[in-house]
Write a structure and sequence with these properties.
This protein has 447 residues and is of the alpha+beta class. The chain is 53% helix and 16% strand. The chain contains 11 helices and 11 strands. The relative contact order is 0.07.
């Protein structure tokens, strides 16, 4: 069901129900008021007749003793007057003795020959005046009054429905314009939708749509850059492997062995690049990494050092005491990969005679806790351009065989879990990398 139809049905049914209840209430009160008015008219008629009878001259009363006065009949209205002795002294309908017979004072209903009458009996100075209304005449009058009241009501209801229909159509025009704007867009167009002329109710929707378009645009740009960078980076080792294999086919002995060794190095480099590319794509693509295992800082540092350093390089790593019971709010695989890349970068680019230092700091807050993993090495002083390009994909400060993706992966992992990656230049040179990761709010003990 369309939004327009839903609005029209909801508002139309609600409006009809409310107007119907109001009309029912009005007609019920109208019926009651008409009945009261007609009853009052009947009583006033009886009192008026009694007053007139008292004003008659004596000679008229003499004639009344011999013959009853006849009042000209009125359609639907009857009257009869009885003397104190019970004699009929005046009447409008001679054939209605049963209907107009004296009875208890007040109102009552009487029926004769299939016709119902509303009868009012009034006594004054011994005279009894009985007046009566035909109920069918009252019903006709009431129907006419209701008809007069219902016609404007129905006219107003139909007019309200028409105004509602036009209002809904006009109110939904901005949605139609937005739909047409999106329908006319080129499939590859990811520019934002203009907010000009949009009502306030549609602005949050358009802003959300624009945000989605920006994210899709960034994702497409990222994928295009990923494909371009991957093709560019893989072309070099593939070309080198092909060249060394061709050399190995043409020569023999030590030269062939050396060519094959170079080819193996190229394959190893290409494998490292592919692994880093796949990991980066999984991190940025929001692939699930959860393995259900606890991820403690102690395990992360231990595994990262094992993966990043050879047996000889392990002696160069100096790390401070670890918060053994603190658990990271992220998969262990990604935490280990991030710290491993930082340690590998420090070992690769730092002074070989200086240690690589790994420290841990824990900041506890009521809302959330954070662990800061710092990896620092000593070496040459980095300039501003180098510091700014550290997390750029495939950017390398030297041709040492690295893929140029390690620090970009660390930054992507930190961003995915609302952490951060900061770099600092120590006074004596080198680089200090601070990786901030979320920690579960648990009580910890320092070992």
């Amino acid at each position: 069901m369309s939004l327009r139809t839903r609005l029209l049905l909801t508002l139309g049914l609600t409006l009809t129900l409310l107007w119907g209840l109001a009309a029912t209430w009005l007609l019920r009160d109208l019926h009651t008021q008409v009945e009261l008015t007609l009853d009052k008219r009947l009583a006033q008629s009886a009192r008026m007749v009694a007053g007139l009878m008292e004003q008659l001259p004596p000679e008229v009363w003499g004639r009344i003793d011999h013959d009853a006065l006849t009042i000209p009949p009125i359609e639907g209205l009857a009257c009869q007057i009885h003397s104190p002795r019970g004699e009929v002294i005046a009447r409008s309908h001679a054939e209605m003795d049963d209907i107009l017979a004296p009875g208890e004072q007040g109102y009552t209903y009487r029926k004769e020959a299939g016709t119902t009458w509303r009868v009012y009996t009034y006594e004054r100075n011994g005279m009894i005046i009985t007046t009566a209304d035909r109920m069918d005449e009252r019903d006709i009058l009431l129907r006419d009054v209701i008809k007069v009241a219902v016609v404007p009501f129905l006219t107003a209801l139909v007019g309200s429905m028409g105004a509602l229909w036009l209002g809904v159509l006009r109110g939904l025009k901005p949605l139609g314009r937005l739909r047409n704007t999106l329908a006319r867009r080129h499939p590859e167009a990811l520019t934002t939708v203009s907010l000009e002329g949009a009502p306030s109710e549609l602005r949050p929707l358009i802003l959300t749509l624009n945000s989605l378009l920006l994210r899709v645009h960034k994702a497409m740009v990222r994928e295009q850059r990923f494909t371009s960078d991957a093709a560019h980076e893989l072309r070099t080792p593939l070309t080198a492997i092909k060249t060394h294999l061709q050399v190995a086919r043409r020569v023999e002995g030590e030269a062939a062995e050396r060519a094959l060794s170079y080819a193996e190095e190229g394959v190893a480099r290409m494998v490292r690049i592919l692994e880093q590319l796949l990991l980066l794509a999984r991190v940025e693509g929001r692939t699930a990494f959860e393995d259900g295992e606890a991820c403690t800082l102690e395990d992360v540092i231990s595994l990262a050092i094992q993966d990043a350093a050879t047996h000889a390089e392990t002696n160069r790593i100096d790390f401070s005491p670890v918060f053994s019971s603190a658990e990271l709010e992220m998969p262990r695989e990604l935490a280990v990969a991030a710290l491993r890349n930082l340690i590998d970068n420090a070992l690769r680019h730092g002074d070989l005679t200086e240690p690589v230092k790994v420290t841990v700091e824990l900041q506890t807050h009521p809302s959330r806790s954070w662990a800061t993993l710092k990896v620092s090495n000593y070496g040459a002083v980095l300039n501003d351009e180098t510091l700014a390009n550290l997390t750029e994909r495939f950017w390398r400060s030297s041709r040492d065989g690295g893929s140029g993706l390690g620090l970009a992966i660390v930054a992507a992992i930190a961003e995915r879990f609302e952490g951060a990656l900061h770099f600092k230049r120590p006074v004596r040179g080198g680089l200090e990398a601070s990786l901030i990761l979320p920690v579960r709010p648990l009580s910890v003990t320092v070992r």
